Amino acid sequence: MKPSQENYTPSHQGLIVKFQPGDFRSALVATRSFGPGELVARLEGLTRGPKRYTSVQCGTGAKDHVELNSDLVFINHSCDPNVAFDLSSRDPNNWHLRTLKPIKAGKPLGFFYPSTEWDMDQPFKCECGAKSCLGSIQGAKYLSLKQLAARDFVNSYILELVSERDGSRLQARL
């Protein structure tokens, strides 16, 4: 369930939702600085469910989706991400959110949606403003290996699906 401003209690230390009027404008913001490669949060309290705009894909199957059930659902997309959801482990107890680069207090968190999503429930026109912006975000299914390799992290199950699509073997991490 996506928290609302009326019932919001921060679920992770060092992070807070900055609520903004309008659809998809709120963001999860760091309240402290994080270094590169730092563990931001373990993914706990997840529930399996159907593919939705609030879910995160966690495997190659059509039904491999989880709801985050926390303020992590407010991490927006960025074509130049500063965090990654790492769901590559076969053990869900090892799933986590980590930084890809330094994040200063007050800065929003952004992850590259195709790093977890093969074919998104709600594709959208990207407004991230990054120099490397792809313009349209639909999922990894619609991107070349070169486009995916330009990002700092892509989950291994997404690379498996790319390998199946392209008929080649890829490394687990780019």
UniProtKB/TrEMBL annotation:
Which positions fall inside the Post-SET domain?
122-138
- Keyword Transferase listed? The answer is yes
Q: Which UniProt keywords apply?
A: Methyltransferase, S-adenosyl-L-methionine, Transferase
What one GO molecular function would you report for this record? Answer: methyltransferase activity
Q: Which residue numbers delimit the SET domain?
A: 13-114
Q: Which InterPro entries match?
A: Flavunoidine_N-MTase, Post-SET_dom, SET_dom, SET_dom_sf
Q: Which GO terms describe its biological process?
A: methylation
What PANTHER family does this protein's entry cite?
HISTONE-LYSINE N-METHYLTRANSFERASE-RELATED (PTHR12350), SET DOMAIN-CONTAINING PROTEIN (PTHR12350:SF19)
The molecule here is called SET domain-containing protein
Species assigned in the record: Coprinellus micaceus (Glistening ink-cap mushroom)
Classification from the root reads: Eukaryota, Fungi, Dikarya, Basidiomycota, Agaricomycotina
